[in-house]
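To: structure subgroup
Subject: Chain for Friday's discussion

All,

I'm putting the inputs and outputs inline so they're searchable in the archive.
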Amino acid sequence: MTAPRGFSFDPEWRITLLSAILLPLLVALGFWQLQRASEKAELSAAWEARQQQAPVPVAGLWDAPAAELAYRSVSMLGQFLENEYFLLDNRILGGRFGYEVLGIMKLDTGDGLVLVNRGWIAGDPARLELPRVPSIPGEVTVAGTVYVAPGAPYLLAEQQLQPGWPKLLQAVEMDKLAAALVELEAGPVFPYPVRLAQGQPGALEVDWQVVNVSPEKHRAYAVQWF
């Protein structure tokens, strides 16, 4: 069967249609990457500015809003609980499997408890045993940065904390952690964890990242989309 006289198949219209559909999408993705770059730059700038400020006692910030607390340098005087702490599971550092250790400090002011992220510790890749976390004896003064998460953690299922200590975590959900600390009868819990600064008493391997993707990478991705 032959095509009707005067008819010719032109595949270019398909390419034109596909381009018309994809072009707005690619442009939108490019602008989204630029927006993300701007947000990350603002976060980095806020972090840098807050790091220039002298640490303030955390006890005076208990009721401060999240925007004021984010990346704020704070100091704490108190004692770490020896056997009670959390292990944030499946933390990778330099290609190595491990945990982040969230210690529990009881403030000497009697205001309550502060969750202190001491940093990273290597774990058993076979998961046959938990790491031995070095204790911090006696009363100490430490400094760190308040960490306010940008949003709720992504979890495949609801997190259930097991009885006993240490407790394994898949993500830091402060409401559940605070509920678990009620049994200690040591008062209220500071609403955000404090990331211990490098070189502080009790600090493990510390490599805090303000942003997971730099503004420069977002801009490079935007150029690719454009």
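Points worth raising on Friday:
Residues 55-151+159-196 form one domain.
The radius of gyration is 25 Å.

D.
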